Amino acid sequence: MATDLKALATKYFEMLNTKDASNLAPLLAENAVLLGGKTKVESKAEFLEAQAKVFKSLPGVQINIKAVYADPEALKAFCENSVVLADDVTGNAMDVISFSAEGLITCLDSYKQ
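Structure (tokenized):
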């Protein structure tokens, strides 16, 4: 059975928008890597800690998915997102999510646009 990478990526952003890092835990591999801006973490625990810090510093953050493209052979999803940081501050990001064969996130690489 093929893994639905679009559904897995969408689930990640749904859980991210709850602003509770523990909701992300079941989606992550133990060696999950988070890359973005000045952030680089290389374990599930550090990934969750980094996200918790974001939620604390930006309580109004919201990710709105514009489009998700999947490459099943590479086990990657490419996610074009609109990011709301505060009431009047928005931006765009491209997130590349890599998955294990079991459907767990092994790497999330985020690029501001």
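Strands lie at 28-36, 39-41, 62-71, 76-86, 89-99, 105-112. The chain is about 25% helix and 45% strand.
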